[in-house]
Amino acid sequence: MAKIRNLALIDIPKLKKMISMISNLSSADAILDYTAYVPFPINLINRCLPLSLKFAQDSYVAIEDDKITGLITLKPQVKNPQSWRISKLFLDENGYDTGRQLISYVIAKYGAMGANTFTVKVDENHEELLELFSKGCGFRVCASEQLWKMEEVKLTSQSLDKGFFRPFKNSDASVAASIHNELISPYFRYSLARTPAEFENIICSGLYKTSFFKYVIEDRSKHSVKGYFSIQTSDNENFILNVDLVSAFDDYLCDVINFSISQILMRKKKFNLYFRNKKFQTNGNKIEKYLMENGFKNIKNQIVLVKDYYKRIQEDERYSKPAIAFSEMSRKPAFKI
């Protein structure tokens, strides 16, 4: 059984060697993924904080015979310390047992601290990784997400007057959360629902690598918010659009996209626009059809797996499997999903 401890700076050379030996990961990608390490002294501060105050990701390594055989990284959901996401997992050859041990360790550790939901997003074609989480560690396949790229970014005519759109305010958080949660299919709602605090603007957001520009659609005659959407970017070149619209306003998706383009054009003349379609929402199929027919190309499909802490981790028979390299960081396009 491997020994598990926090990732330390002295582990980076060994980690680099392990990752570079995995055939399906280039050396450039390996260097990129060392962002799993939070530098000193931030890592020590974050490590000592209670769950509710943690602000950075945590990484752990598995060591056997003075050799690193695996790494796992978790990220807290912003303003929801009870929900954590596994964002990276590296395993040496035949490392499935190590993978189960790492995953079980972090679930037990953070579950005991108060976390109750763990999620991971896996490319739908990565069968070995899907098997590890579902059969090996008791995660359940909960939903799926798609990423679509607008092949030619251009403005179109609008149906809605621009007066319907306004910047998001923290006082809109409860309504935005309600719209988002109501759109989730009931079967997935418990695990994927978000709290109002998760929608609120972050203090000192300029210090974060990823920027969010948030807006709402408001029917001012009825003083009612009908939709919430955000524009996300990590490099000021690739922008991801996340949209939640009440059913009656589904037909105004074109206006939301058009308004978003106009807002980005105020900051950047040349850019790439992506749309994240949440298939676990009731209007997911309708949005997929719209994107397919209106100049968007599907470039990524991810399976969302969930582990609720109160559910027992299932043990499966041992397998001999190839090495695994998984990270939410993608080289093409180079931004966070």
List the helices and strands and how they pair.
Elements lengths: L2 E4 L5 H9 L6 H6 L9 H7 L9 E7 L2 E11 L2 E12 L4 H18 L3 E7 L3 H10 L3 E11 L14 E3 L5 H11 L2 H7 L18 E9 L4 E10 L4 E8 L7 H13 L6 E7 L5 H10 L2 E13 L15 E4 L10
Structural write-up:
The chain has 337 residues and is α+β, with helices and mostly antiparallel strands. It folds into 2 domains: 3-144 and 303-327, Gcn5-related N-acetyltransferase (GNAT) (Aminopeptidase, 3-Layer(aba) Sandwich); 152-294, Gcn5-related N-acetyltransferase (GNAT) (Aminopeptidase, 3-Layer(aba) Sandwich), CATH 3.40.630. The protein is built from 9 helices and 13 strands. It has helices at residues 12-20, 27-32, 42-48, 96-113, 127-136, 173-183, 186-192, 253-265, 284-293, and strands at residues 3-6, 58-64, 67-77, 80-91, 117-123, 140-150, 165-167, 211-219, 224-233, 238-245, 272-278, 296-308, 324-327. Strands 1, 2, 3, 4, 5, 6, 7, 8, 9, 10, 11, 12 and 13 form a 13-stranded mixed sheet that branches. The chain starts with a strand and ends in a 10-residue tail after the last strand. Mean pLDDT is 86; it is low at 26-32 and 311-317.
